[in-house]
Amino acid sequence: MSADVARRIALAAQGFADPRPAAPPTRRHLQRVLSRVRLLQLDSVNVAVRAHYMPVFSRLGAYAPSLVDEAAWSHSARRPRLLVEYWAHEASLVPVEDWPLFHSGAKKRGWWQNHEPAVRRQPQLVDDVLAVVKESGPMGAGAIEKALAGGGPRAKEHWGWNWSEVKKVCEYLFGSGALTTGTRRGFERLYDLTERVLPPEVLARRVTPEEGARELVARAAAALGVATEPDLRDYYRLAPARSRQAVGELVEEGVLDPVAVRGWAAPAYRHVEARVPRAITGRALLCPFDPLIWERARTERIFDFHYRIEIYVPQEKRVHGYYVFPFLLDGELVGRVDLKADRAAGVLRVQAAHAEPAADHGRVAVELAAELRHMADWLGLEEVHVAGRGDLAPALAAVVRR
Q1: Of 77, 75, 25, 78, the residue nearest 55 (C-alpha)
Q2: Across residues 219-237, what is the average pLDDT?
Q3: What is the DSSP letter of 353?
Q4: Residue 320 and residue 352 in contact, taking contact as beta carbons nearer than 8 Å
Q5: How far apart are CA 233 and CA 89, in angstroms?
């Protein structure tokens, strides 16, 4: 297949062939997005908007963020919990029914295993943490530590990682599945017993490592549409051998069709249910952790768009900015903007704006300005301000000022 067909398949699989709803989005619309992307990545950066809210906005337009909050962190008989937190691509919200797949042994053990020494040093602390959460949860690690009257001295070095012994134990129990996130306060994780968060039938399901890998790769393939084996592996961060075995088995089962994409060096696989729309229309701003673009080599292969997140690059060495959103227009990535939500001033600040080499600056500026205004309204910000940095900034600023 041609690279253009592969690009349209990938965009359709991620929900960008669907028109945004005319009326305010509902829980049903959220479920449709989740059925396509399969997970929402969590990230602590809040310079513009939290990462787990933005992919839904990119696909649906302005919606009530409470839809995601209720789906992830509340439960009732009428509106059961849809999502649970776990390490999928990275820290993510995943469908509740997928929980057994992540505890099947299909994925290699995560970074939380680094906290095993804390568990071995104080095995009684594990029982104590579970007992406190059972009695009082959901609770943050700080509250648990206070309830235990201290959990060991905190190291002062390595800012950002000076966790107490209690926090390390909580993260270990989170990774092993004994604890999960009951709810969040702001962005603070409040731990609860997994058995109180997930339905008994989900917890009771047992999946072999081979079955887990097949199901995860099949979900990745449906979410990506057409992909190389490393693309499929990366979606849930599977081990290479496990992923390759699963891909081979899914080819034999007829779930994946081997294909060659012109310009792709590696063999590719198309999900049998992947759609090929005639055209992709519409626009969207994409956060750095959107599943359409989070695998940077794939993004470059599909869109001819070189993209790197520059949060950890010194300011004077940044090329495009601190927290840069690529701009999708009619199926192409045509530009990028460095965004900051200045909530105190009520302003969405465009700190830099760059166009791709072949982009029509005039048209991109008009469409981008409209999407920035839409995003500002969604975030409750009154104005959009454009700084002067970047080759697209003059045209964009002129449109915004009209």
Answers
A1: 25
A2: 98
A3: E
A4: yes
A5: 10
CA distances, 41 to each of 77, 160, 326 (Å)? 26, 20, 17
> Please, which pLDDT band fits residue 163 given cuts at 50, 70 and 90?
low
Answer yes or no: are the C-beta atoms of 286 and 323 closer than 8 Å. Answer: no
Alpha helices in 347-388 (DSSP H): 361-378
Question: What is the model's pLDDT at position 276?
Answer: 98
Amino acid at 99: W
* Side-chain-facing half-sphere of 35: CA atoms under 13 Å: 8
pLDDT of residue 159: 35
> Residue 153 corresponds to which tokens in the numbers above?
């001295």
The residue-averaged pLDDT of 76-103 equals 95
Query: Which residue type sits at 291?
Result: P
The tens digit of pLDDT for each residue in 188-197 reads 999 999 999 9
- What share of the chain in percent tops pLDDT 90? 86
Give the mean pLDDT of 95-123.
88
Question: Whole-angstrom Cα distance, residue 369 to residue 362?
Answer: 11
Separation of alpha carbons 135 and 59, rounded Å: 41
Distance CA 97, CA 183 (A): 18
User: Is 50 exceeded by the pLDDT of residue 26?
Assistant: yes
| CA–CA dist 164, 153 (Å, integer) | 7
Residue 160 has pLDDT above 60, yes or no: no
Q: Is the pTM for the entire model greater than 0.85?
A: yes
Query: Which residue reads 């919990």 in tokens?
Result: 81
Six-digit token string for 15: 């929900």
Tell whether the torsion through CA atoms of 35, 11, 58 and 308 is positive or negative.
Answer: positive
Cβ atoms within 10 Å, residue 117: 12
State the DSSP code for 109.
P
Specify burial of residue 276 (Cβ count, 10 A radius: 0-12, 13-18, 19+). middle
311 close to 323: Cβ distance less than 8 angstroms: yes
Q: How far is CA 11 from the centre of its chain?
A: 16
DSSP, residue by residue, 4-36 = HHHHHHHHHHTTTTSPPPSSPP-HHHHHHHHHH
Give the angle subtended at the CA of 381 by the CAs of 375 and 387, to the nearest 5°: 80
Asked if residue 283 has pLDDT above 70, the reply is: yes
